[in-house]
Amino acid sequence: RKEEEEAGTPWRQMDGDSVTVGDPVVRTLSDHTQRVMSLSCVNAAEVWSGSGAGTVLVHSAQTGQLLRRTQAPGRGDSEDFICAILQVKAHVWCGCSDGVISIFNTKTVFITQLLGHSGVVSCLAESPCYVWSGSGDRTIRAWGKENGKLQLVLSGHTNWVRCVISVGTKIWSGSDDCTIRIWDEVSGQQNQELRGHTGGVLTLLQVGGHVWSGSADKNIRVWDRQSGRQIREITGHSGWVNTLCQKDGLVWSGSGDKTIRAWNAKTFHCMRVLSGHRGWVWCMVSLEPGSPLLWSGGGDAQIVIWNTQESAAPGADVSAVVTPARGAHNSPNASPSRLFGSSDVTPPNFELLPESSPRSGAVG
């Protein structure tokens, strides 16, 4: 199974229903040579994508034309993947699998690096106060937006932190320990621990008053953002649910079964299934506002640009199982195989920004 994951292929073929629609693929981009792990829209005009050897490619958001390419300094190893990309004002932060965060300006000029994590930087998120990073070292770190100084270190997860998002005044995080944890943004205090998934929690998305989570257990769960109560469990994918995004009133999920599914955010029914990748779907980004385009990156080293309006099938409702919330059946020790080998990667021993003393977030 591990070899199949590394090759970007699913370990179980999808056997669910599909819907026949007009071809929604606008363009397939083959500029990367390794799996595409991250996508981010920058200045509403460009899409940045991250892959192996610290490679970042910049394409036109509307045409898909390759505009620029760059590489995170010192990231020449083919296994040094750019796992997360986030625009923060006039800068773009890139999280790498060697534990380093590289910061560029929007013209792809390298600015600096942030050191501190000792494992894969798998996710980045912005809140009103900080930029947050989650890592294979099991911690979440909060950084100053203006100076990159370390402000908080949150400890509590017992395995790889895969995803972090800002929800109101709270920070939600998902981990390979099969839990979702909710933290206070200012103090770093853990407020809540949510259980239900039986595999690692790989992706989180706020949708109105709900938070959706995708997991290595192949399912999606929907939670009330205020109480943390589980509202729905949604099945349909036959592989890991790696990525979620919202577009056109639908929630889109990308999976290790090579497909993207679109879900009605109110009824939780599957409305569309997109097939175009030959490997796992690792990441997606929606172009807003007004654009019908959805970008996805896969284990086949390709980026696929979809026209979500073309993918619509009138009245389509693809069979999927939606169940009300039920008692948690979490196995605390369950964990999917690591995708990048050991997470105990020590970054180079240097610092380009003044050190600060972070406050440790308390664990409830």
Report on the architecture of this protein.
It is built from one helix and 30 strands. The protein has one helix spanning 2-6; strands at residues 25-29, 38-42, 46-50, 55-60, 66-71, 82-88, 91-96, 101-105, 110-114, 121-126, 130-135, 139-144, 150-155, 161-167, 170-175, 179-184, 190-195, 201-207, 210-215, 220-224, 230-235, 241-247, 250-255, 259-264, 270-275, 281-286, 293-298, 303-307, 321-324, 359-361. Residues 1-22 and 325-364 have low confidence and may be disordered.
In short:
This protein has one helix at 2-6; strands spanning 25-29, 38-42, 46-50, 55-60, 66-71, 82-88, 91-96, 101-105, 110-114, 121-126, 130-135, 139-144, 150-155, 161-167, 170-175, 179-184, 190-195, 201-207, 210-215, 220-224, 230-235, 241-247, 250-255, 259-264, 270-275, 281-286, 293-298, 303-307, 321-324, 359-361. It has 364 residues and is mainly beta.
The termini sit apart by 36 Å
Arithmetic mean of pLDDT: 83
> What is the β-strand count?
30
What amount of the residues lies in strands?
over 45%
Query: Sheet with the most strands?
Result: 5 strands, mixed
Strand order of the largest sheet: 10-11-12-13-30
Helix content range: under 10%
Please give the radius of gyration in angstroms: 19 Å
Question: What is the approximate shape?
Answer: globular
Ranges where pLDDT stays below 50 over 5 or more residues in a row are 1-22, 325-364
The count of helical stretches stands at 1
**Which structural class fits the helix and strand makeup?**
mainly beta
